[in-house]
Amino acid sequence: MNDLFTASASLLTNTHGESQLTEVRSWQDFLRTRLVLEPARMVGAEERQQLERLPGMVRVAGDAIAIQYGLERGSPVARLVLREGQARRLRPSEMPSLDRPLRLVVHRGEGPAIEAATIEELIKRLDALPKAGRRADGRGGRRFAGRRRRR
Known about the structure:
This protein is α+β, with helices and mostly antiparallel strands.
């Protein structure tokens, strides 16, 4: 059910669940209330079939990459979360054809994720970042500044 909800960009009707909560007035009432969710009543058969046909993954240079569905400013989007090497090897022919915009995302270290709508834009943003393992002065260096790491 969560997959349908996420892929549908939360366009599912909520009236089915809301009608079961009309008598809830407190947290305790909520905890005592039995909720029955019936996907067939919440999502029509045609829409459900369309959502179930959305791909769950794509292959990038032999690696299986999950497609994450969600919302961006209230509109449905799909995201490919890639490692930097996968992003650099990604070819337009490997991009899935979807019914919504696709975002490419790379998590790099502890900083914010790099996100782009096209391969070219993503590569440009990755190239603008400092190289991993390099110091600010541009020289390569050891992680422990010449000190030997204890084992």
